[in-house]
Request: fold
Amino acid sequence: MSIYRERGERLRSLHQQAELLVLPNPWDAGSAKMLAALGFHALATTSAGLAFSLGRRDAEGAVSRDEALANARAIVEATALPVVADLENGYGDTPEDCAATVRLAAQVGLVGGSIEDATGHADAPIYPFELAVARIRASVAAARALDIPFTLTARAENFLHGRADLDDTIRRLVAYAEAGADVLYAPGLTTREQILAVVEAVAPKPVNVLVGSPSLALSLDELAQLGVKRVSLGSNLARVAYGAFLQAATGLAERGDLSGARQALPFDTINDLFKG
Reply:
């Protein structure tokens, strides 16, 4: 059995267990190794975290598919954990673009990935319903044709693009589930009622919820009680790291203050995380 088949099967089993699956999001090989050392069972890439590490804004098209997959490969090779990827909008508008991205994702060792229905265009931020469903159907077909298990997540992006339309979001997620998506995801949900409505609408398929934002006050235990099977943090951990860096560097630049720098993780501690 190939290591990627084993990882794909392990990821599938993690979605079927009773416990909530927590997917932290590394943005490079180093952060992936640190998360693995802490005992997490699987990892997910972050498009925003990658963009920030490249000195770019997070925006559709700011990072190319080749760059994203090269980053994903580095994360895949850093640990023995299953890795899923933020594949944005499939790096193209057509169903064929999405299918090609899924096939390329598997080639770098990814065993799952998400395709979103955001276009990247401010004047029309969300793909029309029929096209959005066709894109997920093509992604699922590509995933099923692979020789490894590949967990396909379908994302409904309304709430991240000024369209707080729960009915349309649920309509899309139900259609994506019927098109064969393994996991359903609507980033930006913030209330118990919204999350429960989504969980009930697509049951028994698992739902992913984006956590880490102050606007979502529910704990992991509360989300699990609502029937959520998986949570991820998106760019949150990358922003935590960059925030600590910026705070220490600002104190140094503005006041000659070394107190932030003195809070750094000890050299030997971090160095030992990366051995082997």
Summary: The two ends are 24 Å apart (CA to CA). The chain has a mean pLDDT of 96. The chain is about 45% helix and 10% strand.
